Fold each of these.
Amino acid sequence: MIFILASNNSKKLAEMRGILSPLGIELLSQSEAGLSIEVEENGSTFEENSRLKALGACDLVNAPCIADDSGLCVDALGGAPGVYSARYGGESCRSDKDRYELLLRNMEGVTDRRAKFVCVITCVFPNGDSIVSRGECPGEILAAPRGEGGFGYDPVFRPEGETRSMAEMDAGEKNAISHRGRALEKFKAKLREYYADK
Ligand code: ITT
């Protein structure tokens, strides 16, 4: 089964391939599928943006398209950066490091460190059908970055029940507990049901 990942984030692609390939799902990047698109993410929820990205790709190719919209929601910041995680700090933040350093500055002196990663996967089929699944990973924001693995805010996030940051885990360990891993586990079950009903 070939699916196209409607994403420009190569780290997401690598994680999703790691999770979906054992199921026989071949995930093509946008460039491998001959697509060059940047969908405007103007939704206010992960669900809306995930659907916008999947539809944007599916309008252009005759294959099922998957999108992942994800982010970090921090309790003490009213859920920010949330759907704006990739754009946190605007033009003044040009890298993942800039963004997590801004987050740490905004959390200075804050004792409530609770946060969660959220991921919403949407798969749109050429016939208009769709599958949506959501995964969350609760945890807390560390005082300083730790680890070199993963991407984004991983160095400053410690998942609940863990002593290490997400960036101190290897890919398999992260996928087993991450928001993306959890959303994709649900997605796999829904996909099996979808094809069983066909
Ligand atoms: P696409 O929209 O092209 O897929 P993107 O990186 O812009 O790529 P999002 O709009 O979904 O994706 O933003 C997700 C951001 O949330 C991402 O850039 C990271 O900053 C953060 N994020 C999501 N998943 C993460 C993870 O597993 N570890 C660390 N940070 C993550």
Amino acid sequence: MLSKRIQSLSPSLTIAISTLAQELKAEGKDVISFSAGEPDFNTPQVIKDAGIAAITAGFTKYTAVPGIIELRETIAAKLKRDNALEYSPANIITSNGAKQSLFNLFQVALEEGDEVIIPAPYWVTYPELVKYSGATSIFIETEDIDNFKITAEKLKSAITPKTKMLILTTPSNPTGSLYSKEELSKLGEVLKGTDILVASDEMYEKLVYDAAFTAPASISDDMFQRTITINGLSKAVAMTGWRFGYLATPNKELISAMNKLQSQSTSNICSITQHAAIAGLDGSADADIEMMRQAFKKRRDLAVELFNESDKLSVNKPDGAFYLFVNIKKVSNDSMQFAKDLLSEKGVAVVPGLGFGTEGYFRFSFASDEETIREGIKRIRDFCEK
Ligand code: PMP
Ligand code: GLU
């Protein structure tokens, strides 16, 4: 009865594990979850107030499919201010989360026979959405000694005449790796003279700790033309439930095709979210963003130290995002079984590395308070060192 397309799609592992942990907790089990890719902070008051004001003012009707012009102007101003990128509002579409932005992009740009290069470890959703578009994922493996980053040489050898797109995630989910300007320039050089598009997922842009964030599209005019910049507010200002993401590209054909798809699927995103998002993007929430960034930085340092004190576990200190990709090779070569046993024996939920395409690791989200982090890592270490 079901289409072959949907039958081949796997459900999101990150969401499945977070849901399981929530269910176990609701049953009264002593479960601590480090599986969710979600800030534990509340949405800043200034954003909530903008949403409430939108309801009161009656902004509760359909809007233009890509979003109201004030919102797209605010996004254009943000991209100019933060990333030195010049997009006009006509080059921007807002969607129900960056996830829908990616979905729309893959649906309109990819088809059977196309190859999409994805550095591994990767966010669980990419290969599934690529598969749903009919295209094929080509993975470039990376390791912790390379800080989980691809090099120009690796990229070059993955390119074939069928390559249609490269997905770059900086900072990365699940490793937190951040590409420097120089590294991005080298990757850009490899792409010169090709028609390869770059889907640049910048969801964790605001969560960087030591080094500066560089937008791939800002590297050169060549990179600007081929890059689709994808971002949102779920992580930057704890707006996961509001469903807000956006995408920008100078490519008019792509924009028009994605507007067409969205006009026939979900139309505009929630009108109230649109007004709230303006407050998340125009600088009003900058103090809140900085407070959360500082808190995440402290938690990162704590968690990295606690894991690396164990002689069974090791982890790189990530430059960004709120994840650690913890090496368990001394303990297990089956991350799925490891995660299952850890949950049933110690009540700790983490996401197995296999879900991100890389065996021998688990992802630990440090978007929890320090006490929970201490208790959780204690249990994980007890489990590994037994
Ligand atoms: N990209 C990355 C790398 C992510 O981790 C996520 C998960 N939230 C998303 C995109 C999608 O986020 P959202 O749909 O909430 O905007
Ligand atoms: N992106 C987050 C994560 O990796 C949220 C869950 C999801 O959308 O997959 O956990």
